[in-house]
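On clarity, I found the account of how folds are encoded harder to follow than it need be. What matters is that the chain and its backbone geometry are given together, residue for residue. The format is easy to grasp once an entry is in front of the reader. For illustration, here is how one protein appears when written out as sequence plus structure tokens.
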Amino acid sequence: MLISSADKWMKKYYLSILVLVLTSVTIYSCLIVTENRVVEAKEERSSKKSSQDISPELRIKIDEWMKLLYSEDSAIRTSAVISLLGLNLSTVYDSLIDILKNSENDDVRISLIKAFGFAGDDSRALDCMIDLLTSENEEMRIASADALGNIGTTKAVEEMASLLLDSRKPVESRILITGALAKTRSREAVEPLINVLESDNNHLQTAAHDALVEITKQSNGKAKSFWQEWWDRNKVKTREQWLEDIVDKLEGGFKKLKEENSLLKDEIVEKTIKILKTSKESDNIRPLIDALKSEYQAVRIYAAEELANHKDPEVIRIFVGLISDDDTEIRVLAVNVLGKIGGVSELKNLISALQDKETRVRESAARSLGRMGKKEAVFDLLSALSDLDSSVVCAAAEALGELRVDEAVEPLISLFSNADPKVRESAIVALGKFQDNRAIEPLINSLKDKEERVRWYAADTLGKVGTKKAVLPLIALLSDESARVRESTAAALGLIGDEVAVEPLIKLLKDIDNRVAEKAADMLLSIECKSFVLLDSIVNAFYAKEDYKRAKEILKKQIKDYEGLPEYDHALWQSKKRLAKLYFSSHDCQKATLLYEELVAHFDNNMEIKHELIFCLKEAKQYDKLLSFLSLWIENPLADNHLWWPEIYEIIEGLFKEGSFGRVRTLIDDFDKKNPHLGGPELKSRFYDLRKKSMAAMLPQGEES
């Protein structure tokens, strides 16, 4: 009979689950077994069965497990090793050690290492894992360190301590060893770890410190002297005294066991989810369906969330059935998933969940109905507004906000008088999605609510509604004692965008709370202000705050909106001057230059503008353009043109220093023809001297272009 691929996968899946359970039981048993029992187990394991004891049936089984060692699934590989180790056969054990030492398959060796760590110590396996701490394979190094930490025998600790103290070994391997020693919680590891605290490598120091804290439950910092002093006092203690100290610091042995058990459960959950992810990749949803009944909440949630992506009729039927499950958690999951999947067919089941005995189920059902957006649920959601639990009322209100039906407006408004502020909040938020004028007056009244969050949400909602009727009440709220309310109110005024709010928002720039002031500043930028005077006021306010970045934005808006309007010509030129200076002061020379060129043409005799343009052009190294401006300015008989000759000389001198000798001679000759005085006797002499030097420099080399 042929076996289908699905059956094969299921066999593999359930085998993995079985191994996982057996492994978990083994680990848990190790947590509670006494020291004497551990010793007995190790002694028993040391006397292996001989090959003569192997039956033909067992040999077949061994061969099967040996083949599973090379499975692509790491869980199956690990389970196969554990099964083989459990036989206590010397021949099998020898084979496993040989594979560990010599196999070229790193994945198989890693699985062997993990299984040896679960099973306990053996001298031959131990030696191999010690050697593998310096392997080139990072995953193998990590697995070896983890396994050695699980084994934790005296020999293992001694070997690891020896490697830790060997400065010739790679730092990465030594860091891994500190983690393994921490897992052993052996006091034999304390002194080697203390010695490492004086290492030159900070990462190794930190790892050693963390390991010491884990073993001793002490916090002595990273200084070796403190740890050494503590160790000198405590190393003479008996093992019992040592353990008592540790137990005291762990707040009792029961708590410790509980924590370790929790970690074990986390490991089971992690591995189960990993297996479920494998099933997801193969498009097999059956394991996910089975996982809905897991005892672990995280597993159930994962399975439900994954199944929520499947609109398979079977999946929908399963979740519909789970709405009446005995487990509250399962019912909550069911209604949440159905809300995500959607569909009219399961609507009645979700509606019925609004009558569930558990509050969380009713609340989740209301939210799911809102997400589904089915108006058929309106009547039942309106009824849920009368639920005795406020959380259900809030969820129903929010759901009605999503549905946006007219019938819900008045019932939601009626909730504004509810005694629970959270209900009032939810109703306000829901109405914000309606854009219904009936809600405006109640929302304005809610601005006076005694609860901070209600005022906050009311302001926010009025902003979203965008009614100018709310502007004045919102302005009044800018003096609210709550910074969050003032911030929300500023945002609302910005969204409405009425110019009436400009001056109040300018005052808010001085708010003691920086978040409020920043929000007011942002909103001043967002308001479509049509008044040139108001824009000037905003600019001045930003100047007062030294907020030049936002000032630039308003100035650019001014120039853009009013360019070409004759009545604003004079004022615009002043705005351009301010904007150019802001660019200039922030060293944005490219933008500043464009404005300064325009300004120089308009304000021909403004020396400050000319000087700032010179600076910008120098910064941008636009010497040709600068020289052209300077040439024009020195020819202006009405200007004080003697000021520009030193600038011209400085530029030409710079070209000389760069080695542009031909260019220097040409420029000086041109200026000499047009203006023989060259800025006066002193500068003229310097110009001629520079030309002479340029010509001399050109003689042996040839003229430069």
